[in-house]
Specification:
Elements: E1 11-15, H1 23-35, E2 41-47, H2 48-54, H3 59-72, E3 79-85, E4 99-103, H4 114-123, E5 129-131, E6 140-142, H5 144-172, E7 179-183, H6 193-206, E8 210-214, H7 231-252, E9 259-263, H8 272-282, E10 286-289, H9 294-305, H10 307-322, H11 324-328, H12 345-349, H13 353-360, H14 371-378, H15 381-387, H16 389-397, H17 399-419
Parallel strand pairs: 1-2, 1-10, 2-3, 3-4, 4-7, 7-8, 8-9, 9-10
Antiparallel strand pairs: 5-6
Helix pairs in contact: 1-3, 1-17, 4-5, 5-6, 6-7, 7-8, 8-17, 9-10, 9-13, 9-17
Length: about 425
């Protein structure tokens, strides 16, 4: 590895904080986990799109994280992630991020020219034929034509990653000063383990010192709700991807701490036991990134607080119903809402705070839980942003109850099941 390189911890966990009010409550969950004997580095992430929706700036994420670290006297690692950046959006994040999720999904499938593809295939004869990878029972049989097909699909994306990576390195004072993740999850089709191997070889060729890579897995990773898909197939892919990464580190000189990243969309409870078993068996690391469900815990806390908090929560739901198409459009590929299952604004207006909270809180076995309400509110955070000081003022007035929900959700529903059980 590069001498003195900023190194991502073995276990790291990405958390969103839409309104930069819950960093301390979030960090408290990691503190509780550390008291259980498991050290996980929190990574506060917020994308360019979310900043634009809310009207915030990346500096607010760093400031909130720094304040939480000071308040709780946190001595372990932590990071701030410029989430899903591209070359045209990265500059606003350079001063206040040390972790960069380089998103090249848009370039996947744009065909590389034949000369570039042929040069890659010639440079990597080890990728063709019988490829034996420790930890995968059957060798991969990959023809040179298949290597060429994969290279044609991904080489431009990898080249884009290299451009962004070098731009960050030039602006940040060298590649040792930041953590690079390459994200390929926001695309139509999952990457197979052989495709991941080709991608990692190409990233090594490109000189990208990638510390975590986020492929797309089989199944639906909808925002804020559980995984929808074949658990056995996910387990096979996850295990094989871990083996491919270990193989690529040894073969191509990629950073020794390179690990798999799961962009979960949050709350993939059924996957946590699978991931936990794999980490225990292999000793591998993990970066798991959640979506902005902390904002839902804020809404739950305000509803349970009653009074003005409950009134605003109901107003936000009513407005979300009125603007459902507009709110859902940017997230169409990662939500599944059955509008017939959404109660009317009039019905919700009669709910108690507890009834509202039960509908939104992700406890699937609860008879009043409604995943359609939860997903709609998940993407409706810009309505809270429009409420401005009224919303953030209520967060501050009800800090204790909101913080309790934020910490409990992260610790009890995510961190413990993922790392302890």
């Amino acid at each position: 590895m590069v001498h003195g390189m900023l190194t991502l911890e073995r276990f790291s966990f990405g958390v969103g904080d839409r309104f930069a009010h819950q960093a301390k409550a979030q960090l408290r969950a990691f503190q509780l986990l550390a008291e259980d004997g498991i050290e996980v580095a929190p990574v506060w992430n917020k994308s360019n799109r979310e900043h634009d929706f809310i009207g915030s700036e990346p500096a607010s994420v760093l400031a909130a994280a720094q304040a939480a670290v000071r308040a709780l006297d946190w001595k372990l690692g932590w990071h701030v992630d410029a989430d899903h950046i591209r070359l045209e959006t990265v500059d606003r994040f350079l001063a206040c991020s040390d972790f960069f999720t380089i998103d090249v999904a848009e370039s996947i499938g744009r065909p590389a020219d034949g000369e570039t593809v042929n040069a890659f295939v010639a440079r990597h004869p080890e990728l063709s034929g019988r490829v034996v990878i420790s930890g995968i029972p059957a060798p991969f049989e990959i023809t040179s034509g298949e290597v060429a097909r994969i290279a044609g699909k991904y080489l431009l994306a990898v080249r884009d990653a290299g451009k962004i990576y070098r731009h960050i390195a030039a602006k940040k004072g060298g590649e040792a000063s930041f953590i690079a993740e390459v994200s390929m999850d926001e695309t139509d089709r999952p990457q197979t383990p052989p495709e991941l191997l080709v991608i990692l070889a190409a990233l090594a060729d490109e000189g990208v010192r990638v510390q975590t890579i986020a492929p797309k897995f089989t199944g639906r990773f909808n925002k804020g709700v559980d995984y929808v898909g074949d658990l056995a197939q996910f387990e096979k892919e996850f295990d094989e991807d871990l083996a491919v990464i270990a193989h690529a580190v040894a073969r191509y000189g990629l950073p020794a701490n390179l690990k798999l990243s799961v962009h979960s969309g949050s709350d993939k409870f059924s996957l946590y036991p699978i991931i936990r078993r794999a980490l225990a068996r292999t000793g591998a690391g993990l970066h798991l990134k959640t979506a902005g469900t902390t904002w839902l815990e804020e809404l739950i806390g305000l509803a349970e607080a009653g009074g003005a908090g409950l009134t605003l929560a109901k107003e936000i739901y009513a407005q979300a119903l009125e603007h459902v198409d507009e709110l859902c459009a940017p997230y169409a590929s990662v939500i599944d809402i059955d509008r017939a299952q959404l109660p009317s604004a009039q019905e919700v207006a009669d709910w108690s705070g507890a009834r509202f909270a039960h509908a939104v809180r992700h406890v699937p076995a609860h008879p009043e839980f409604n995943p359609h309400v939860r997903q709609l509110l998940h993407v409706a955070f810009k309505l809270a942003a429009k409420a401005g000081d009224r919303y953030t003022g209520l967060l501050e007035a009800n800090e204790a109850v909101v913080a309790k929900h934020v910490t409990e959700n992260l610790y009890a529903r995510h961190l413990r099941p993922l790392f302890i059980a």
